[in-house]
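[Automated response] Your request has been received and processed.

Submitted sequence:
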Amino acid sequence: MGQNIAKIAVSAATYSIDKPYDYEIPEDMTSQVVPGMRVLVPFGRGNRRSEGVILSLVPSSKKRLKMVERALDEAPVLSEENLRLALWMSDRFFCTVFDALRAMLPAGMWFKDGVMRQSDKIVKVAALGVQNDEAYDLAKQKKARAPRQADVLELLAGAQSMPIKDIYRLTGATSAVVAALEKQGLVRIEEHRVYRRPSIRAVEKPGPIELSAEQQEAFDGIAPLIGSGKPEAALLYGVTGSGKTLVYIRLIKAALQLGKTAIVLVPEIALTPQTVRIFASYFGDSVAVLHSALGTGERYDEWKRIRSGEVQVVVGTRSAVFAPLSDIGLIVIDEEQEHTYKSESAPRYHAREIAKYRITHSGGLILLSSATPSVESMYNAKAGRYGFFRIRGRYNSKDLPSVIIADMRQELKSGNGGSISSVLQSELEHNIQNGEQSILFINRRGTHPLVACGECGFTFRCDKCTVNMTYHASDRKLLCHYCGTYKPIPNACPDCGGKLKYVGAGTQKVESELLELFPGIGIIRMDADTVSRINSHDKLLTKFRDGKAQILLGTQMVTKGLDFENVTLVGVLSADSSLYMSDYRAHEKTFSLITQVVGRSGRGEKPGRAVIQTFTPGHDVIKTASKQDYDEFYEHEIVFRRAMGSPPIRDLMTLSAVGTEEALVVLACHRMYNVLSNHFCGDSGIKLLGPAPALVSKVNNRYRYRLLVSCENSKKVRDTIAHTIRIISSDRESKGISIFADADVYD
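Generated structure:
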């Protein structure tokens, strides 16, 4: 009996009805379709056309089934490993199988109205159809009566073949000239597929890597884990500037020597060009890059290069963890503590969890690395679940930057209400005079985060979201950073006509203050407003590296991974801003941000220093960050996590309801609470917290409420949560409400 039934993951199926759907394969397609191919199928009562992915083929049944309409691929684009991973992700991250599969392919690979959004780039090439000597002789003969044909023949006699567009540009020939030569049999027109590759700034060919004693010790301990033949995990904890990247390169070389491949993940797009240049200098064209700032065609072609086996090393941001490499021996997650490794939309996966899955099935090593490891990773390392390796000193044996605490309370008392303290101003003046560079970090973009009336207290809040709008002076508008709504700012309070007050500072405000303090200096601002264009972040960092600006001012994208020899001063302008967020990781995020940005200073021959501006100089996090003392911070933080029952002591699951009617959203959350209470009744190891509004309770006119489950992540708990979501989502009372879950898991 033939296998003419396909089990298909359908894009139109929501999570509440997600399952493999059976479709009959037409007889003329039975030899064509295989698992991993995409097809077009009718779905639902209206038989609306929907894209799907074939998961498996099974023998025919007597049931009457809908038919597959057509295949969208000529060959499978997803491997068996991809299909297994998608099924695992569906269980682990509460997403549909199709959503999981979609995350594995570049944007250009997906279809719109049955047409793929991206295609191969084909270039027409003219190749010489005769011997070189004959081409030169014919060119001489044609020089007088057909000079353009002669020019083309001379050019091809030297190059053998060349894209037709280049021939037109270099000789002035037209299509008619080339067509005439083709008709005479003197040239052949061929079509060549070319890769659209991101440009990589050339670097000098590096010499052999010389590791310090501590680096060598770490390498010697980690390298055997790659070839152990079983899945391994390790944490590399090294201070900023300790040369962890050199250890990665040596480890990758070791993996390649074993015939294996490697992935290196970085948390920020801004870090990718710098990292790619370093790795490309050692591994050449066998390196590929994957991140969202590439053009659609570039991402599509890099993916195809990787899948073809031309690539052994992939560098990229979160989604690069899905790179279609085979026989992976090493996955490095640099700055592993960063929240950007967690996806905030379906599928809500963490890159670390995907990396663990892939390493488990390939028998390689996942290496988590940071100067400020996540509390969860350090906890696992201390518990013996991860191998633990440490580098205590900087690679160049230089001291860590000296840190100055600027008490902003005293600045206010002395009459300085600006963003730049007198201490920081003095240090900046010193750097400018000495031709040295500085990096300033503030975690807010825009000019002022709050505009209020000094008479009646009116504030400009977004009509669609429960947040204040940020003032951007560059175009005199108020902008909501959540939904993108903007409006021009009035000259007076719209309620009482009172005078408006501008409160707080963002990157634009600090930039204007710096230009007032230091007229004529070069300042580069890096935030979401200045790096929106493709590769713009790379251009800004290159400009700073080349010494065309004295100060680099930015948000989180300037806090980590950047390595500039001439940077000797770092300023943290508002160290307290993230301390009091409604997030159990608030202290960890603050400590990490401060420590990471301070570590950008003094990485060359000159000593570094840092200024931390704060209104709470006595806070434990500020004190430990100023000392660069992660060990002390960890000991304080793990006590707090244990008392609160937060990860890594317990796991947290978040169930969310989102909709336009607040009362219905709240009702849906209460119904979820009741269902879960009945299921978990009598289980003292599970606690339900909430429901409560999200930190920002309304975004783009949609209300958001959440229910937390404090538990140990297990198959039973996940199945219960999935069952609850399906029950509530299928209820008529939940019509129009999106319900989803997020597994905030650290194991």
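Summary generated for your ticket: The first helix runs from residue 80 to 93. The chain has 21 helices and 32 strands.
If you did not submit this request, please reply to this message.
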